[in-house]
TrEMBL record:
Coiled coil ranges: none
Keywords: Endonuclease, Hydrolase, Nuclease
InterPro entries, per the entry: McrC, McrC_bac
Source domain of life: Bacteria
Protein name in UniProt: Restriction endonuclease
A GO MF term: endonuclease activity
């Protein structure tokens, strides 16, 4: 995707830094000073540093259910399984018990990723050797076939939240390599890139304002303002970001597309994407206002290479809607100044 290629790799690193506070650890400082030709190099380097950090902290454990035949009774006896396996002949019974083990999904994902990357010729030999050398620490972890479906079952809590950054980067890198090696059309690859960077862009915008400003920062669901309390089948209104200060509220929706505006025909006038305007206008109108509260909306696009970029302020039915585009090709100081200026348009 042409627009993605215009985002410096270092800025992707900074976006990751804000999204995942883990990158502020001293072990990662060197990564921020290096230059990388592509995101695969960046993700690979992060894993080569980050996985040892996890190992030094001790691999997470949890209780897992174990089923086996044994001559020692522990846990629960599975009568049906004992009969089916004819275990009594050898004076054993089938038992089910819980074991506190490292053999959990998070460790399985990391191990499967290490195996996959250590065999990939898309990764430098130096990194492959480093990753392969980490496998002995996962000898108690079962081998699983790496697949994107694995990540769908991941759940985080206070005990394993330190895994989130590394497990997410494992997915980013696996997806990148998977589509590089497949025969998928270039259009499909670009769509996948856009989806992945869109998710990171949304998380980055939220984390940036949380860290760099004193606004009240949240991303709540907005409830439909219905007259009869009937909300069955209505879509969820999940905000990307809500900024609040005094009696002012700004609802922000982050947008990352290959095209930010549309034309009906070649050479025609560029128009706003109607669905995005409808969405933010609906958010504003369903926000449960406090007395004397002023509510506005903002569509915060990532700037593309197209000539026409959103840069408008609309006043519709007494409501302000800001439509702006953030240039991710700037150095990070410029990105920071732009984001703060966009918010200040409304709050000052």
């Amino acid at each position: 995707m042409e627009r993605n290629n215009n985002i410096p790799i270092r800025n992707i690193y900074y976006m990751l830094s804000y999204t995942y506070q883990t990158l502020n650890l001293s072990e990662y400082k060197q990564i921020g000073t290096e230059s990388y030709e592509n995101v695969k190099e960046l993700y690979s380097e992060i894993l080569s540093v980050g996985i040892p950090v996890l190992i030094r902290g001790g691999l997470s454990k949890d209780y897992i259910s174990v089923e086996e035949t044994s001559n020692v009774i522990k846990g629960k006896i599975d009568i049906n399984s004992t009969i089916k396996k004819n275990a009594l002949v050898t004076k054993k019974v089938a038992v089910i018990y819980d074991e506190f083990s490292e053999n959990i999904l998070l460790n399985q994902i990391i191990k499967a990723t290490l195996v996959y990357l250590s065999r990939s010729n898309k990764i430098s030999k130096k990194i492959r050797r480093l990753l392969y050398g980490m496998l002995p620490y996962f000898t108690e972890v079962s081998d699983v076939e790496i697949d994107l479906k694995l990540w769908k079952n991941v759940r985080y809590n206070r005990q394993n939240i330190r895994y989130q950054f590394i497990v997410d980067v494992c997915r980013y890198l696996y997806e990148q390599l998977l589509f590089d090696e497949s025969s998928t059309s270039q259009m499909a690859k670009e769509a996948q890139d856009e989806q992945r960077l869109s998710s990171l862009y949304e998380k980055f915008i939220y984390a940036f304002f949380k860290r760099e400003t004193k606004y009240g920062v949240s991303h709540p669901q907005i409830q439909w303002s219905v007259d009869d309390e009937f909300t069955d089948a209505l879509p969820i209104m999940q905000t990307d970001l809500v900024l609040r200060k005094d009696k002012k509220t700004l609802i922000v929706d982050a947008k990352f597309y290959s095209e930010n505006m549309v034309t009906r025909f070649e050479g025609g006038a560029a128009k706003q994407k109607s669905s995005n305007l409808y969405q933010i206008f609906t958010y504003i109108n369903n926000w449960k206002k406090e007395p004397d509260e002023t509510v506005a909306g903002m569509l915060l696009y990532a700037k593309t290479t197209a000539l026409n970029q959103p840069n408008h302020i609309y006043h519709i039915k007494g409501k302000q809607i800001f439509v702006v585009s953030l240039d991710l090709s700037l150095d990070f100081r410029g990105i920071k100044e732009s984001l703060l200026a966009y918010a200040n348009q409304f709050f000052t």
